[in-house]
Structures are given as C-alpha cells and as structure tokens.
Fold this protein.
Amino acid sequence: MRFSSTRILRFRIHSVFFFAGLALLLTSTAGRCDQAVEQIYGVYCVQCHGLKRTGTGINLPGLATKPRDHTDRKSMGDTPDDELFKAIKEGGLAVNKSVLMPSWGATLSEQQITELVKYLRKVCKCGK
Amino acid sequence: MRRLLIAVVVLAAPVLNEASAADNLDPSCAACHALAKPTDTSFDRMLTRKGPDLWFSGSKFNAEWLVAWLQNPKPIRPAGYPYFKTIKEGSDHDLPDPSKITPHPKLNKAAAEAAAATLMSLKAPDLVPSGAFKGDAAGARMGALAFNKFRGCVACHQGEGGKGGFSGPELTDAGTRLQPDYIAAYTADPQSFDPHVWMPKLSLKDKDIQRLTAYLSQLGQGAKP
C-alpha cells in the first residue's frame, strides 16, 4: 500500500500539532502543580522555614530550635523521602526531631504531603 | 396550610435572625470579615481573605473586651493578617511589612457598643459547646509548661511577657479577650472552624486542652482590655 506525498505531509503536520499540544498541556499542568504546592508551602511552612526556605521564618525569635534549612543540600540530602513525609504528616517527634515541628496530617492530604516532599527536593536540589 | 406556614417560619427564623443581626454592622465590616458561615471553604478562599472570620464571634470574644478594642484596635496579630501576605524577608529572619498591614478602623463608644452587641449575637454553639472548658484553674501551671515547652504553642503565639512567635494571634491577653470554652474548642480542632487555617491540629489529650485553657484564660486578667 502506498501513500501519496500529500497524505504523508498532512500526517506530519497533524503529528506536530498533536505533540505540541501534548507538550503544552503537560507544561501547564506541571506549572499549576508547582504553583499549588508553592502556595501550600507559603501558607503552612513559611511561618517557620521562611520566605528564603532557610529556616528563618517570622517565628524564628520564638523558637528554641532553628527550623530546618530546606536549601541545605547536606542535611536535606541525608533525609530520605519517607522521613520527610512522616515529619510533615506526624510532626517532628515522630522522627526524633523537635516538638516545634507540628503534625500537618489533619490539614494536608497525603497527596499534598507527597507533593511537598517532591517540592523540598527541588528546593534543596538534592535527592534521596 | 396554616401548619405548613408555621413550620416554614420556625425553620427560617434562625437564618433570618443571623442575616439581620449581621446587617446591623457597618457594611465595611463584611468587606474583610465573614459574618455568616461561608459556603466556600476552599483553600483559595483562604488565600483571598483580608480579616479573620467573625461568624462565630459571639462564642469567641468577651463582650467587654470587644467594646474596648473596637475603640482602640491594637493589632492582635503582630505580623498582620494573613501573615503570609504581610511579611518580607529580613537579614536574620522574616519580618512584618508595615506597608502591607492595614490598621483596623477605630469606632466611637456608641458604635463600638452597637457593633459588639451584634457580634456577640453571632454564636456557634455546635462548634463551641458550653462546658468545653471544665473550669479547673489548677491546671494553669502545667498549661504554662505545655504552652512554652512540651506542645510548642509558643512557636507561633506570644504568651506571657510577649515571648513567642508571630504568625498566630498574640495570647498575652487571651484571658480578657477570649471565652474559655472557645479556647478549649479551637485548640482541640482549629480545622472545624476553618478547614485550611495555618494552625495545625495537634494530637492533644483533653487533659492537655484543659490545662492549656486554664493557663491562657488567666493571661491578661487584671489588665485593662
């Protein structure tokens, strides 16, 4: 079976539009996810971990223990994802850290906490 | 037919009362505060809020404090409200940004008394049951330890002597400002009042709640509201 050159050209044009559309869709979805998780970080985490994400939030003067610097590649890199998840969901005491890190399990869904863990990996530019 | 009409009037009465009570307030109040329970309880709504919800204010505040505060509204939240819109980066830590904090309007005595009377009529007995605080003031000492040390409340709230964090309301005068039943009910489950509020729900036993309430209820007592 042979295809005419016009049909091949039309197929190629359609393919270009299809993949361009798919790429646009994926990019905008990822953008929305990033925005949503940044907003969550900005409401719940920033109060202690700060706008710079370095543990220098507005509450720092009232804290006996400095909050984790989320940009610190070493300490964040040494902390596995499941420990980060547990610390956010159940609080600092659940991972032998400070009571000043509260549990967010009643406020955030498991999906949101998973997104936060992924976001923290972006902030520290490290992975575990 | 007559019975049906009576039933409709009886069922509609609480709704009408709530609506008309809030209508007594200056319309500018509603520009920043929810005076009736919001139907939209989404995260997005919280991001656009300009002031705390007041639809349960009659179960929250002490009337005398409200009258005095409305005439001389000193900030309750030292970093502004919501804190995440009113802060800026500082050299050592984030700081309140005064340019983003709008002062609360001052009312004269008559207007303050009228507004307070209306606000005190906005009650939420389902959320703040009478007797939530069992009244044992002897737990205050342990409550102070829980607040300042074991439960970490001081991280976000200023307590005795103004020590503490900034993202939550200051509690240095909690005893004059807040009803003990409200302190107990809100501390136990902030999300039942406000599903996305940035105060976490801690896994506190009722014993902790009672002790914390006993401690906070005595703060500011004796001081002028």
